[in-house]
TrEMBL record:
Molecular function, one GO term: ATP binding
Domain of life: Eukaryota
Pfam families: HSP70 (PF00012)
Organism of provenance: Sinanodonta woodiana (Chinese pond mussel)
InterPro entries assigned to the protein according to its UniProt record, in alphabetical order: ATPase_NBD, Hsp_70_fam
TM region positions: none
PANTHER family from the UniProt entry: ALPHA KINASE/ELONGATION FACTOR 2 KINASE, HEAT SHOCK 70 KDA PROTEIN 12A
Entry similarity comment: Belongs to the heat shock protein 70 family.
Protein name per its UniProtKB record: Uncharacterized protein
Amino acid sequence: MTDRYKIVNTLFNYIITVLQAGITSKDLRLALEPEAASIYCKELIVNHEENSQSSELSVLREGSKFMVVDMGGGTVDVTVRQVVEERKLKELNVATGGPWGGSKVNNNFMAFMCTLLSQEVWNKFCSDYMSEKLELEREFERKKRYIALDSDNRILIKLPSAVREVFKEITKKDLNNAVAIEGGYQGKVEMKRDKLKLDPKLFQSFFDDSLNSIVKHLKKLLKVIETDTFFLVGGFAESPLVCETIRKTFPGKRIVSHDDAGLCVLKGAVLYGHNPKIVTARVCKYTYGTEAMRYFINGYDPDEQKVTIDGQPFCKIFVKHAEMGQTVSIEDTSKCELEAVSATMTVMTIPVFVSTEKNPVYTSIPSCRLLGKVRVAMPDISGGINRKVIVNITFGESELMFEAINAKSGEKVSASYDLLGENDPENKNS
Ligand SMILES: Nc1ncnc2c1ncn2[C@@H]1O[C@H](COP(=O)(O)OP(=O)(O)OP(=O)(O)O)[C@@H](O)[C@H]1O
Ligand SMILES: [Mg+2]
């Protein structure tokens, strides 16, 4: 099982628990993290603006674009939104980002400890003293929260006594004497009783990987989308070092951070729950379409795409309804007509597909994945192949609503597909 699959599984188990607790599915709404963050940011009381001495209330006005940088533990997700009429939000790009969240800093500290103590000592400590390792992680987590760009005092980290014991057992040396002269950190690290004293620059360097990647990504995004306002949210945005580095790197921008940065997503999700219509448009993360048959064209279509029906050569093509990167308004409908491929067919099966390509031609290519199938009864075969089914696809809050109508009888079949989790094409190999 991939981590992503585990997360989706956990989420669905959680939803089942909520439903079992008596909350009906109509009262349950999934909020997308970056969307929830944007909703909160739009309403945010800005009291930490740079260059502003006063605590002023500033709500973004219609037309303004803003970037929300959600810095969590695992990932950093960046989205750009625009405030449209009636203070609603339009998504201008799909969330982008990477695994540059706060846990990368913790991982760098652990890697440093491994270099400092030697692989052998570190491995033994981690495997034989798990609760002490947890204690060390907690200690680092506490110290990590206070480091700023201008910190010049050495940072003290209390080491569990097991570290010293394992070090002695394996190296036959005393840790307090050894760290000052070994491990390549002379002058930057020393031991005082049970505490490791770290040079602030060394401590800040644990943030380098994350900060460099975040800054690089923001610079890249700014080349494509112009915006003057950055909202920094997520737990990692509570770090003074993180906020100060971003402020220093983008001096002309309005960087808004908040004491409660870690709660912005939660608060935004509550606002969204009260008013889902606050989101008017989303950018499609994938290309959505249906599968249809068309005559096989010799010399144009690859041979492996040929399917023979009633002695006629066909191929299965992807009929696009919405393209990856395209902005679709919530409740927008895309329409198309599909014709019977055989004069005697009494049921039309319409497969619904997603693709990670903008313009997939055939449905059997690796970028495409079947979401599900809708079957429309066509018992009256009097029209032969001149019988039609009208397909309407509506983009809802978090679902793709699919409606197929038999053009002659008016009979309707509908289905909906979750766009947030299980049907995500990224999970197809899980
Ligand atoms: N004051 C702080 N200084 C530095 N880091 C902090 C601070 N407060 C929280 N963090 C870090 O923020 C991270 C957690 O943030 P958050 O709760 O937003 O993550 P998440 O939403 O659970 O993760 P993800 O969005 O990646 O799924 C942790 O890595 C934590 O160490
Ligand atoms: Mg998060």
